[in-house]
## 1
Amino acid sequence: MIEQVVAEVKNGRPERPGGRVMSLLVQPTPPPLWRGLVAAAALIGVETVVVLLLKHFAPTNAFGTVYLLGVLVVGAAWGFGLAAINALASAVAFDYCRSWPDSGLSHPQNWVVVGVFFIVALLSNSLAWLARASAIEAERRRHEADLAARQQTALRRVATLVARGVPPSEVFSAVVAELASCLEVQNAALFRYEPDGTALLLAAADEPGLQKMPVGERFSLDGDNVAAMVRRSGRAARMDSHDHAAGTAAARIRALGLCSAVGAPIVVDNRVWGVAVAGSSRPDAFPPGAEQRVSDFADLIGIAIANVQARAELTASRARIVAAADDTRRLIERDLHDGAQQRLVSLGLRLRLAEDSVAPEQMALREQISDVVTDLVAVSDELREMSRGIHPAILSKGGLGPALRALARRSATPVNLDVAVPHRLPDYVEVAGYYVVAEALTNVTKHAQASEVHLAVKTEGDHLYLSIRDDGVGGADAGKGSGLIGLVDRVEAVGGRIDITSHRGDGTSLEVLIPLERDLLAAGQSSELVPGQT
Amino acid sequence: MATGHNGVVESQVEPTRVVIVDDNPEFLDSARRLLEHQGVRVAGLASTNADGLRCVQELRPDVTLVDVNLGEESGFDLAEALQESDDGGPVPVILISTHAEPDLAEMIETSPAIGFLAKSALSAGAITAAISRLGHNHLK
């Protein structure tokens, strides 16, 4: 209890007035007996001096209460036994003062006085003892309520992080810090169970001065340790000491200066995903309810991980849907090109052969055939434009650079082009980049009334960066069917980001980042959540 | 476009010899018949890069018509390969496609091909025009 109070003081928490004295008086285990004896003797000495001084002003009989004070103090701190001795000694001293300079105890009436004092002192002491017990209880309850409130606050902080969808690493760090603080222990750690039977340390909070736990290290789960117990049972577990525990993990825990530990499972999708562990260098650090408190935090981590996994799955499934649609469009374009388009072209050539074969005198027939050839070429061109809308063949053949330049050439609004991209990029990057520019240029022509578009495309680190700025009327809104919402979906589906700035009268600017590797989709989101990856 | 059904033939002593590389048999057939009719000698037909390369090296035509799309292969690659085969000097390549020229403009410019013809505009006249442009450029 006193350590907790001291801890509170260290933590800079405000102390109740009188709390210090109270805590001294209500310690559950009394200070050493010799200190009690010394204290009792000193108190009696001081009291005797006070009574002898007071004797000059009033009859000594009135001052028995002065001695009572010492009995109560000693009784409160050292218990009934010492209080009784103190009461007896005080009674004798009181009697001595009262009859001084005569020898008091020779008169039987003095014995009565001593006896009455002794009994009253003991009764008072018993009452004081009761008061002390309820004070201890009140103090304990207050501390528990305080801890519960702190834990609720800590849980709320973590829950807010989880709800905000911050990266799991941030949630992990916050949880270990809060866990150690709430349980008032020196260490807290999060482990993920690995397929190889080890536990990977994901995050740790260590009190300054304690050896730092090595994040990223794999702990073997053989022998006796909390992580192994939790994995086996799927339930919270505790070890009040690792002194005689077997196994390398236990040895490692001892080497880190830790003694006791409580762990609770982190459950994700009904599977024990990992374990949250609070550790202390003291053997008796964890009160009976500690398992539940660690579990409260572990549950939040489980939710955070499930959230992130759900989000990652959603992202991946969006990307798959878009990729499947792109593949289909590519196939349709190729089928059109290789099928209908080629047949129309061949038909045209055969008709031209027929046209050439018509005798010169049959001018009318010749002209008719020529008209059909012209129409056929027009149909073929129309089909070609449709095909390009479905999927630009140039993109598959020449890559993003030539495809964007072709787009710029066809744009109704003049395009100022600044493209510096590698010859080839991953398919999905090229398609997304092309789509963004095509859609943006269409939007500009349709809505912006711009005189020029500036298009800049480059690779920036592990992203493709696209910037499309026009000098038009601005005021575009992704929510109003402007085509912008399609762009947002398209970019986000491949894990990219799009910023749209469109103030009325100040043109529209799109800035887009598309990750160059699919893995980046998951980076910082799920890689640390998948067992076997770090 | 051909100038007339006789014009091209009469203007040349030796007919122009071409090899056509395209993966569409129907197109190969139509193109051959039209060009032959217009007085061009279609020396060989091929449908893959490898066949095309072999065909050209064996037959040494005046010009090779190469489709930009050759199934999974690219006609641009064949144009490069033909340029690099120094077996008797490079044979000029004219790229053909159903795609629009502006779409492919950049790739055509960077390829060693001497020109581009939309498949629908294929004719003896267009081929000779491309070759004579090449000759004209060489004289410069």
## 2
Amino acid sequence: MLTEPRHRIREATLAAATEDLGEDYEWRSDSLRQRWRLAVRRHRWPLLFISPFFVLFAVFNVYPVLFSFWLSLHDWPGLGPMDFIGLANYTELAHDPLFWNSMLNSVLLFFIYVPVMTFLAVVLAAVLNARFLKLQGLWRALIFMPNITSMVAAGYTFRLILDKDSGALNHALAFLHVAAVPWLDDVWWARISLGLLMIWAWLGYNTVIMLAGMQTIPRELIEAAKVDGANAVQAFRRITVPLLRPVIVFSMTLSIIGTFSMFTEPYILTRGGPIRATETPVIEIFNSTFTDLRFGYAAAESYVYFAIIVVITLLQFWTVSRSDPVR
Amino acid sequence: MSQDDIGTEGNPIAGFLHGEISRRELMRRLAILGLAAPSVAAIIEACGGASPTSQPAALSKDLKGSLTIWGWSASVAALKLVDTDFSAAFPNISVKYVERPPGDTYRNIQLAIAAGSGAPDISIIEDSHVSQYVQLGALADITDWVKPYVPQIVSYKWTWIQKSNRYYAMPWDPGPVGVFYRRDIFQQAGVDPASIQSWEDFYQAAKTIKQKTGSFMWQQAKARNDGRLFETLLWQRGTGYINAKGDVILDKDPKVRDTLEFIGRFWTDGLAADQEPWTDPWYKAQAGGGTATVIDAVWMGTFFKSFIAPKAAGSWGVALLPVWQAGGSRASNDGGSVLAIFDQSQQKEAAWAYTQFHLGRNQSQLQIYEKTDIFPSLRSSFQDSFFQEGDPYFGDEKVRSMFADIAAKIPNAGIYSRDYQEMSNLTTPEIQKYALGQQSAQQALANAAELIREKTHRS
């Protein structure tokens, strides 16, 4: 190429540039198979380079998802032949008190901790975003730290702290002449304790999301408000929070999914008790699989659970983002 | 055993190898291992039952293998006590242990079963869980190997490891239950432990002890109750979740309700310490006299001596369970375990060599019991002079012969079964609700029974 005269090079470039158009034109008359073959051949290197992801995704995500559905139509104890039973697992599930109890627990847990956590996350993010704050990196790291701590270790630590007789928290309350609280020994307190653990573990994560959102809000808007006589709290309420709305919606969506798929936290802290008060759908699915050895039923539970999360998430998106954020 | 049971596995060797290896392949492998024809003949003889002597088949010293064995720390430590002798007897078999808590062990077993590979050669499995795997077909049929042991081992231990007259595991320890009691607390309260004959006596003593010493009679968590004592007491009365036919009787047998209400009196009268089992407060109360009794199986001694209350030597004594009615049973069971060889294992013979060496000899079982309180199941081992010696931890009381008596008298009860874990999980929340005073015992049992019928399709 290099030895060729300049005008020849220009011609070649021009031909290359119009190649797509020409081929498109020709393709119309070609069979679909030929088009495919041609496309694959043309893109063989890029396809090869991106293939590891798709191969792994197919093996570890697509296949299990499809297999689960197939499994959900069968009765299978984990070994031996699978009995095809059609939708029997789903009809049984429709009136399984334990499964719906676990769904209800998730809804209750959501209302117990998500509003508080989201509110705290917005406030913390505003503080961390303030110009007067020194050592910002340090504070951000500290707040995020619980999220990367092993949940098993944290769960056991919370168990020790919250024990009604020997726990540090009740000892501290006794010092303040407050009666002992049955943190893990009462249906409602156990849910609250679980909420506390969730807030401890996930507040930092949500704060970081809010902080990222706040940093996209132009400073001029807040400065303009201040010029108009708004104080810091008013500016926060009237400017920052409304503009942050899509980010809050996003973070709450993650929290919905997180609440319904909660497993490690209740499994360690409360073991689903007392009286099944903190049994979440995933614990229920886990029990169906590993205790009851009903793999097909557990798969059906997973599908229904997934469908419910999708519906709730869409509903939440729809209701919250329907109205205009800035009035 | 009928011809039907044997089916296509009429040939004894092909039978115990369960279709994994054909007869020809077996012969080839035995030849490779250098096993001469006589030892094959010995195996055939032993398995076919041609010889009336119940002597277990001798295994070749040259057996090769590298075994993986799953279990939890206390029991693995016990098995290890025999390993030096085992390696001397079978120098070509190496052993690797994987220690996990019981729950994790079972989950890993289930994953390995479902995946079709990854199971260990051998696992320790509790009597409460083994039935599930037997019914599932995950364990190797070792009938021909264990048959000679059937008359030699405490009979109730065979209940859960049989299916259609075939055997799928080798019994290890039974779980004879006694009342561990604090001599010091009883003395302080002026209660003579020997005077407690019935459970009513026990309840009256609980009131006296609470009044005079402030100690609780036993530990029974309310919101975190695990139902274990309830099961132990049902076992003593020969009842349980289900009857011999497999039908749910929780709400039908008046003895069940009576038992739960008896436990309930300790809650309403403030005679039970509200402590969750296997947590620090639970240990602490046992070490420090917060509880006057612990009703549990013989293996509890291991935990007292090792980490719960090593300094309390001499303060604890052991008594028989009180009776429910005059002349009633004083024996019950809690826990106990087996060694099971997995169907997936490619070295079943070496695995059996290990199992037989560790559990099929008085010497090994005694070696374990002398160090750990994991009780032998071979009846002949009870004749050893060790059983007549006092246990210094229990104030030189002859607890060993006492537990041997209990082990021989454990009644049949409908507690452990293929879906024990599920039935127990469905029942404990109802017990918790009863303990917290939110429903009656009758309601609790009715709810539990209904859930169990719904979920397990039992009638």
